[in-house]
Design a protein that fits this description.
seven-stranded mixed β-sheet; 7 strands
Length: 145
Amino acid sequence: MSKSLDVPLAVKAMFAAALPGVDLQGIDGEDAAPDRIGTNGRVTIEAGDPGKPEIDLCPPTYNYEHQIPFTVEAPPSGDLTGAQVVDAILDLMAAALEADRFLGGLVDYLDASAPPSNDDYVEASLTTSSVSGVIIATYSTPHPL
């Protein structure tokens, strides 16, 4: 596989390990979003776009800042609102990022753009909250393929 697909799949695997019980979907095309979001929430990760690389000429090296979009959705759970459940999921995602900024050596660095604050969460319905953000994977390859 190409690095532009390996990296989002590795991000998905990292979050799958960090978010047991949360429905994790996307990238491989095998996941179809269910009509209902599970009580522990859902995270959807897209393959994203590596964008146009910066190129070093000698030797040829293609440097990417691959943007990997994600969406976190959650209904209220117990005494927590949907937004609080989303926050808890984001905290677990942040801890996973901090624990492995290099995806086991697959990337040069892994970071995330800040999603909107709690006040800006979109209420998809009276019971479900969601927020979107972007994981940014910085890596280099010897070819653009």
